[in-house]
Input
Amino acid sequence: MGMKQRILVTGANGTTGREVITALHHRGVTGIVAAGSNAERTAAAFSGMASAVRLDLTDPATYDAALDGITKIYLMRPPAISDVQRHVAPFITRAAERGVSHIVFLSLQGVEHNHIVPHYRIEQNILASGVDYTFLRPSFFMQNLATTHRDDIRTHGTIVVPAGSGKTNFIDVRDIAEAAAIAFTEDGHRNTAYELTGSEALDYETVAAILSDACGKKIVYTSPSIPAFFFHELRRHTPVPFILVMIMLYTVARSGKAAGTTDTVRKLLKRDPITFSQFAHDYRHVWVDG
Output
């Protein structure tokens, strides 16, 4: 068997990191190490499931302690980091030097055709490192509606995204996390890229209708122009680089290029992907007062 596996989960307190730790724990994996900017808070969040370390990708002084004894890494790009050559590439290099054998990286659907996005450069860095990889390339997260767009939906009953009438294929982050856990714990997933989607593409009118039904209140899709969306997010104090990334992603949806589906989730998880209706039901509490 060799050395005991220790899996470092970066962005442990984020949308996907939290679910990856849960999925690994459900599979009976011990030796999960949750990485966050505040080790004490992270340790408290995952008590009984994972130990915790401080990791700040912008601070190389935190790398070695975080990588101590680690054999595998779940890597995601912190949204605040756009200069990946400066802040992510050195971490990948150090991980390779420290003997990490497998990196599961949260990439992006269509990344192989989109060399502008930071995820593409991170994939290239991992390939250059020589470490075995699994690239997870998911479509739009359903959970974005429960995080990034939560306040608009909860407070104003509006979905404000510049996707026009284009259809989007959504995936539940819980399915991505289960795919990551499978890649870590089962054979046959190394040096592979998986395009992960749900089973249906929906326009935002339909999304609003499903959320209205789940929440028992009227939720409206406002379909703003791109400039209107930019200023809407600016008023919410969203950082400009993050707004620009969102605009880029929603422009893909607007053009109808975000509607494609694959059956990869069904093959990997041996079940159907979680539906948007199921997601809306499960997260109802996020948008309903009280």
The domain at 139-170+198-259+271-284 is CATH 3.90.25.10 (UDP-galactose 4-epimerase; domain 1). The longest helix spans residues 240-254.
